[in-house]
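Entry type: protein chain
Record version: 2
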Amino acid sequence: MKTKKNVLLITALLFLTILSSCSSSDDNDLPQAICLKDDLTLTETKVNDLESVNSIHVDFDVKNNSSTNLDHGDNRTVIYITMNVKTTDGSVYETKKIFLLQLSAGSTTTTTASADYGSGKVFDSYTYKLTCEDL
């Protein structure tokens, strides 16, 4: 009987040792998300008001001023642009879209951001803001 208790005790200890040695995979193992929005310089190159479809398209030259490549897969973050379009009657329309997924360190690219405004309205101006969101 004493041998049976010893075998059960040893089995229980062995089981606990194996169980405690198992590691759990959690988000702490993932690299920290990096937001490079403040390292980007945007230069407006063209604004196209598409009155017939109540939309504007704004072309930007975008330069990555950092020494880090912007890559949503590596950095675990996506840069969004929120554009607010103001019409001549004072109405404001907000559009948020993915802006940029990849750009090498020190490089420049051209990209277009678009935003819609209300039917029958007349485009006046726009503003934009960049934000980052973790994947």
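Comment: The mean pLDDT is 85.
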